[in-house]
Amino acid sequence: MPESTLYSNGVPIRFSPDLFGPLRSGAGLPDDPAALRERLRTDGYLYLPGVLDRDKVLRLRGAYFSLFPDGYLAEGTDAEDGLFSGSVPESLPAYGVAGHPAHAFVRSAAFQEFVADPLLADLASKLLGGDAWMLPRQILRHFHRGSQLASRAHVDLDYMNALSPAPRVLTLWIPVGDCPPSTGSLVYLEGSHTLAPEEYEPLREKGDRPGDRRPISHDLELTARHLGRRWLWADFAAGDLMVHVPQIVHASLDTTTDAMRLSADVRFVRSDDTPDPRWLAPWSADDGA
Ligand SMILES: O=C(O)CCC(=O)C(=O)O
C-alpha cells in the first residue's frame, strides 16, 4: 500500500479511499480485438500487467542509466537499478535537450529496437481497428526524488489536436522499471474519458502555468474533488503496459524513492489518418509540442 500522503508537483494528496482506487487489470482478458476494444471503450484504459519481457525492459533501464556521468547514480549500484545518488552533476545539460542522455537515448538503436516490438503495433492495430503506426515523437520521462516534478493532470488530445480525425490515436505508457506510486507512477481519473471538456475547464484557471492552457491542473486532490472522481493507481512493474485513449485525464505522482522513475510513452495512429505534424520528429524536451 502507498504511504498515507502522496505528492504531485510538490502538492500533497491523501491516499484515502475517496481519492484513490485500483486500476482494473486486463490480465486474463481474451486476446480478442472486440473484447479488448470494449474494455478500452468502457474504462478509457487497458492495464496489461506483465505482457512485455521484464528482462528486456530492465536491460533498457540499465542502458539508459549507464549514460550518466559519475556521481549521478548511488555509489556501488548497478545502472539497471537506477538509484539516485541525491546529487546532479553540474555538467549535466537540462533534461531531455541535446546533450542530455535522454535526448540521445530516444534516438538510439537500443530504444528504437525496444519500441519496435511488434507486440505494441499489433495491439494498437487491434484496438484502432486498422493498420496502425507509431508516431516518431516518442517520449522518455525520467524523474528523481527531490525534484517535485511530475506530469500535471491533462488529456493527450490537448497536445495533439491537429490530428485528423482527432480521436483515432492511442497512447502506450511503458514503465521502464518497477514503478509503485512512491516512485512516481501514472494515475488515471476514473471514467474521465466520458467528461465534456467544459467540466474540467474551470480547473485550468487555478493551474500553476497560467500561460499554458493545455494542462488541467497540478493539484490532483482539487481535480478529484472538483470532478467527483477517484484517481486510479497500480503498483506497476517492469513488463507492464498501459494503453489509454486521448480523452482520459491522467497525471503522475512525485518520485520519493531512491529508485528513479523511468518510462516511455509512444503513440499510435491509424495509417490512413493525417497525423499531427508536431509528432513527426523525434522528441526533444524543448520542442514545445
Ligand atoms: O509519464 C508521465 O508522467 C506522463 C505520461 C503521459 O502523460 C502519457 O503517456 O500520455
TrEMBL record:
Keywords: Dioxygenase, Oxidoreductase. The keyword Flavoprotein does not apply. It comes from the Bacteria. GO terms for molecular function: dioxygenase activity. This is Phytanoyl-CoA dioxygenase family protein. It comes from Streptomyces durocortorensis.
